[in-house]
């Protein structure tokens, strides 16, 4: 399930989206459900004309919702989570091995199936409607998502596959893949990251068979929704599902981070689970959030054809776990092709103890940019997207330093500090100046701002 969304203002469409020159490698989507083996990235994407883009073997007409940039499309099909010895692959394999080893079906085969090659292009219905996310929910906004058009988008979470996988008859699965969200720019946020979704459904017999005198217990009732349960669930069923969920995740995190790990649970809100929780771990003396989880909304389960079952779901970020476990300080490093980075994660087995040894710390170059905002709606995420499109991974951080409202004209000015730092070499002031100048010119041209530079 998806991690908690930030609620922000509605986005203004950035014209820095697709151009006719887009060339991207992707994942062919020849089947509805993929196996745990990833699909080769052999399909090119191109935009033969300015109002159409071809991606993963299909054509998508652009409209007023299209806001995917070439920079983002260039990441589609990289499949870092399936690249052997990559730190994200290591985390995925550790989780997968844990579930394969500890959760077996009646015939001794793994209970959970794994899907790590599902296409990142999904419908808006898959990403939102199937999860019961209301039409006016803030998480649907263009400011937070990458839309191909009004009907198709790059998935914002692996939860987009929940309904389809349950509908296909699965009741225990892990779905892994790259997800896409427009966000701030710093060392822990990147517009493309990787999630793992976990879902488990229980029949009445499966949930209560190990409970003494549990024959008379039921999954469902006609009651009222409270802070602790849904209106259709019995309290006994919810407590057992919640207990199983927390036990499974505690064992998983202990297996990854070691015995003696401290865990705590924080009540929270997710649109398609209730009750919902965030899991925090105490690692090396610091409490860190690592995943979100909860009891699945029964309406979602019912609509997917599993009316006689109740279940849980969780969603975790692979980058988050890898940064904690391997002490990787900058999320951009996961996209590095530098052998000095990649070779550090090659070992005899996936459980090899690894502590990332930093490449020499190159000095940052800092430049500020100020401009008056346009009178129509302005979105900070549009500016961040523009900066990423032009500066790419040379941009370490963008911070809003100052917001000023003119007392007479009422015009609003923003001043941003852009920190440039290459993770693998020293930047020169000349190359940074050229990039910064291109950002200034593009902000005026694409976002309609009035420069103060």
UniProtKB/TrEMBL annotation:
GO terms for molecular function: ATP binding; phenylalanine-tRNA ligase activity; tRNA binding. InterPro entries: aa-tRNA-synth_II, aa-tRNA-synth_II/BPL/LPL, Fdx_antiC-bd, Fdx_antiC-bd_sf, Phe-tRNA-synth_IIc_mito, Phenylalanyl-tRNA_Synthase. Residues 24-43 are annotated as: Disordered. It catalyses: tRNA(Phe) + L-phenylalanine + ATP = L-phenylalanyl-tRNA(Phe) + AMP + diphosphate + H(+). Residues 360-452 form the FDX-ACB domain. SUPFAM superfamilies: Anticodon-binding domain of PheRS, Class II aaRS and biotin synthetases. GO terms for biological process: phenylalanyl-tRNA aminoacylation; tRNA processing. Residues 89-348 form the Aminoacyl-transfer RNA synthetases class-II family profile domain. Its EC number is 6.1.1.20. The keyword ATP-binding applies. One of its GO terms (cellular component) is mitochondrial matrix. It is found in: Mitochondrion matrix. Gene3D superfamilies: Bira Bifunctional Protein, Domain 2, Ferrodoxin-fold anticodon-binding domain. CDD domains: PheRS_alpha_core (cd00496). PANTHER family: PHENYLALANINE--TRNA LIGASE, MITOCHONDRIAL (PTHR11538:SF41), PHENYLALANYL-TRNA SYNTHETASE (PTHR11538). Monomer. Belongs to the class-II aminoacyl-tRNA synthetase family. Is responsible for the charging of tRNA(Phe) with phenylalanine in mitochondrial translation. To a lesser extent, also catalyzes direct attachment of m-Tyr (an oxidized version of Phe) to tRNA(Phe), thereby opening the way for delivery of the misacylated tRNA to the ribosome and incorporation of ROS-damaged amino acid into proteins. This is Phenylalanine--tRNA ligase, mitochondrial. The gene is FARS2.
């Amino acid at each position: 399930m998806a991690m908690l969304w930030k609620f922000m203002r509605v986005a203004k469409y950035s014209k820095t989206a697709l151009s006719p020159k887009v060339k991207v490698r992707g994942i062919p989507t020849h089947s509805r459900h993929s196996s745990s083996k990833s699909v080769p990235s052999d399909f090119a994407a191109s935009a033969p004309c300015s109002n159409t883009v071809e991606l993963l073997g299909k054509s998508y007409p652009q409209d007023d919702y299209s806001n995917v940039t070439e920079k983002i499309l260039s990441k589609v099909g990289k499949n870092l989570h399936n690249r052997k010895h990559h730190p994200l692959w290591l985390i995925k394999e550790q989780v997968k091995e844990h579930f394969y080893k500890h959760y077996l079906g009646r015939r001794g085969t793994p209970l959970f199936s794994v899907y790590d090659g599902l296409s990142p292009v999904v419908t808006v219905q898959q990403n939102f409607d199937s999860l019961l996310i209301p039409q006016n929910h803030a998480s649907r906004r263009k400011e937070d998502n990458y839309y191909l058009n009004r009907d198709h988008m790059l998935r914002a979470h692996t939860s987009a596959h929940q309904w389809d996988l349950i509908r296909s008859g699965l009741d225990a699965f892990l779905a892994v893949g790259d997800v896409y969200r427009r966000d701030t720019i710093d060392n822990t946020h990147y517009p493309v990251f990787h999630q793992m979704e976990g879902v488990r459904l229980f029949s009445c017999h499966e949930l209560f068979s190990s409970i003494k005198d549990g024959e008379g217990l039921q999954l469902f009732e006609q009651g009222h929704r409270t802070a602790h349960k849904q209106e259709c669930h019995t309290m006994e069923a919810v407590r057992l599902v919640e207990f199983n969920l927390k036990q499974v995740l505690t064992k998983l995190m202990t297996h990854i981070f070691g015995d003696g790990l401290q865990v705590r649970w924080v009540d929270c809100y997710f649109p398609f689970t209730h009750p919902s929780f965030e899991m925090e771990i105490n690692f090396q003396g610091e409490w860190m959030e690592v995943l979100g989880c909860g009891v699945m909304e029964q309406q979602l389960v019912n609509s997917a054809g599993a009316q006689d079952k109740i279940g849980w779901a969780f969603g975790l970020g692979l980058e988050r776990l890898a940064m904690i476990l391997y002490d990787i300080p900058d999320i951009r490093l996961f996209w590095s092709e530098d052998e000095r980075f990649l070779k550090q994660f090659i070992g005899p087995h996936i459980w090899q103890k690894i502590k990332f040894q930093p490449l020499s710390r190159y000095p940052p170059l800092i430049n500020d940019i100020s401009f008056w905002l346009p009178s129509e709606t302005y979105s900070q995420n549009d500016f961040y997207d523009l900066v990423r499109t032009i500066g790419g991974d040379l941009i370490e951080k963008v911070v809003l330093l100052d917001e000023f409202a003119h007392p007479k004209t009422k015009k609003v000015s923003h001043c941003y500090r852009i920190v440039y730092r290459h993770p693998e070499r020293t930047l020169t002031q000349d190359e940074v100046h050229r990039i910064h100048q291109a950002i200034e010119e593009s902000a005026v041209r694409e976002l309609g701002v009035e420069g103060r530079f």
